[in-house]
Amino acid sequence: MKIGFIGTGKIGKAIILGLLQGKTASQEILVYNGGHQSAQKVASELNLHLVDEYAAFNECQAVIVAVGGPVINSILQKLGQEYHGIIMSTGGGDLEEINRELPEDSAFVKIVPNTPVQIGEGITVASFVAGEKETAIATVKAIFAQMGSVYVVPADLLGIYGTVAGCTPAYVALMIEALSDAAVQNGVKREQAYQIVEQMLLGTAELALTSKKLPEELKDEVTTPGGSTIRGVAKLEETGFRGALIQAINASAK
Ligand SMILES: NC(=O)c1ccc[n+]([C@@H]2O[C@H](COP(=O)([O-])OP(=O)(O)OC[C@H]3O[C@@H](n4cnc5c(N)ncnc54)[C@H](OP(=O)(O)O)[C@@H]3O)[C@@H](O)[C@H]2O)c1
């Protein structure tokens, strides 16, 4: 399956890496050049096919637009005129309005992938217009299933699902940094601090997923009465850890 890209910044490149570690060959990925240095750099680094016109995407089953900001609307309008197929946007674009303007054989889909897609461990949230063709839905699911889980949600919930899946890797990175800083402060070597904290997060998430235990059960298993863990948990409560995370999600979701 050939897939086109307009925009190969942070999320565009993460999706491309996700495709490459999946079933897609590098020469099946077409990247719009448009004089963008990032496109030229990513295409040469990953041996992708550079194209100079949107019409060249007509050999692709789908085109992913991974560009932010107000320029997205003019890109989507021009692409809709020159390319017939599935158009996906990681950023702006009104689902209903753009679908209304597209020809019958095209589809516009909104997607929010998170950065772990690049290692096949990602989450992609997608919204389709009501009554979207089953073939378009199946194609989008097949593309992103190569790089993790896919959730299809109503358009009015795309923002919050995207926030929970897509913004939180930054929160977790902060947590890794802070826990490692504290470890280093108390004498652990920096490299080992990162390794231990990262492995602990992976293991805890895996345990939660496979055991299906509630978070409170997992916490209770570690907290010996009068022990060191409950002292740390109490300090987190005192300093508003859970409230801070809730507020962060609410701020990101605005
Ligand atoms: N980063 C994430 O985790 C994430 C997750 C989900 C969704 N998103 C959304 O995805 C969008 C892109 O985010 P990003 O983080 O990938 O941004 P980014 O790193 O700034 O990348 C944007 C890319 O778009 C290119 N570009 C800009 N204007 C263009 C144009 N007119 N035609 C073709 N290419 C153009 C840029 O190329 P040059 O820099 O070379 O000009 C760059 O490659 C945003 O709306 C963001 O909210 C991001």
Explained architecture:
This protein has 254 residues and is α/β, with parallel strands linked by helices. The chain folds into 2 domains: 3-152, NAD(P)-binding Rossmann-like Domain (Rossmann fold, 3-Layer(aba) Sandwich), CATH 3.40.50; 162-253, ProC C-terminal domain-like (ProC C-terminal domain-like fold). 53% of the residues lie in helices and 15% in strands. The chain contains 10 helices and 8 strands. Strands 3-2-1-4-5-6-7-8 form an 8-stranded mixed β-sheet, sandwiched between helices. Helix 6 crosses helix 7 (190-211) and helix 6 packs antiparallel against helix 10. The longest helix has 28 residues, at 158-185. The chain starts with a strand and ends with a helix. The model has no long low-confidence stretch (mean pLDDT 97).
Compact description:
The chain has helices at residues 10-21, 37-46, 71-82, 95-101, 134-145, 158-185, 190-211, 215-222, 228-238, 241-253, and strands at residues 3-6, 29-32, 49-51, 62-65, 86-89, 107-113, 122-127, 148-152. By secondary structure, it is of the alpha/beta class.
Q: Strand-residue fraction? A: 5-15%
Query: Helix share of residues?
Result: 40-55%
Tally of structural domains: 2
- The CATH homologous superfamily of the largest domain is called NAD(P)-binding Rossmann-like Domain
CATH classification class of the largest domain: Alpha Beta
Mean pLDDT: 97
Helix and strand arrangement:
Elements: E1 3-6, H1 10-21, E2 29-32, H2 37-46, E3 49-51, E4 62-65, H3 71-82, E5 86-89, H4 95-101, E6 107-113, E7 122-127, H5 134-145, E8 148-152, H6 158-185, H7 190-211, H8 215-222, H9 228-238, H10 241-253
Parallel strand pairs: 1-2, 1-4, 2-3, 4-5, 5-6, 7-8
Antiparallel strand pairs: 6-7
Helix pairs in contact: 6-7, 6-10
